[in-house]
Amino acid sequence: MVLILFLLILLLLLVSYAFFIYYKVNENDIFPDEIYYVKTKDGWQIRLCRYTKDEKGIPILFVHGFGSNQNNFTRPHRFSMVDYLKNKNHDCWTMEMRYCKSSIPPYNKCHEDATIDDVLVYDLPAVINFILQKTGHNSLYWIGHSLGGMLLYAYLVHFGNDGKIMAGTTLGAPLGFRNVKPNISPVLVSKVKKRLSFYIFLLKLIVPFLKTFKINNPFFPVNPKNIHRALSSWDLCKMVEPPSGNMLETLANWYINNNWEMLNGELKPMENIEMINIPLQLFFAQSDPFVNIQTAYDFFDKLPNPSKEMFLLGRAQGFQHDYNHCDLAFGECCEKEVFEPINLWINKVSSLSTEEKTP
Is the pLDDT confidence value at 149 over 80? Predict the structure, then answer.
């Protein structure tokens, strides 16, 4: 009888904890100055948030990574990358891809229908054109983490250098996963795909314990010792959002086969590096499981634009920690080691752009 009572109490506690996590991660506590819903050519409405102190500043588009959302850049509140750059008088815009719950699908579609190709072909052009029209600028600056950086490369190769992207910064953007040894199987991907939202929720349940006890794990590539002091467990949970099964399968195929192709094989960004011809700033993490460091150096050397710089964030290079894939956006010393270099780079390339336009 005592054992049964104990098990019932334990079950009640677990259920209560699960409801608490669900409530916390679904709180709509964002703090933008403006919110817009941008309609794409195929009928989706994409949420776009603006954070600005000076509307005349260079517009910056933040594109989050796979399985994430705008919280990737806006947490912890008041100490995030967006907060830092906003306080430097930059005009910051965060979009959320169509798989995110903030987007509104057309009547005959759902979030599970989202694909990476659709984000490239529909979401990004709609968002970019909206920002340029709203601000009156001819071009914007792009900051992309992980998949958000890959999409910058894909955009430049697919649409060409149309002048709308002035320059960019990528954080931990995989280079087609070249020379990376995959640690997952197609069978596992197939099984996870069917109940992806459930597994993501399970991950959110254990995130507070991973953070509290600084536990490394293969499912959330973060250096637990390199987390900003103000970043809470709830912030980490809010950053994680289940992508569509289609997107999971596509990205997993790239990862497993080391073969980054889009648009039914017509778009191969890593075979057209010469078209990635804008000023670029690249950040890579020493402990990133998705990027081979030598491949990163080779990619950097092949970039055609001479205005470029690269950082490898690790203790051997003089940084506070060996960064991992995700903490490039919210590491303990990111203000000094990531955010300020981005600020300086934006100021530099925007000045160069102004000089080139001056007769």
Answer: yes
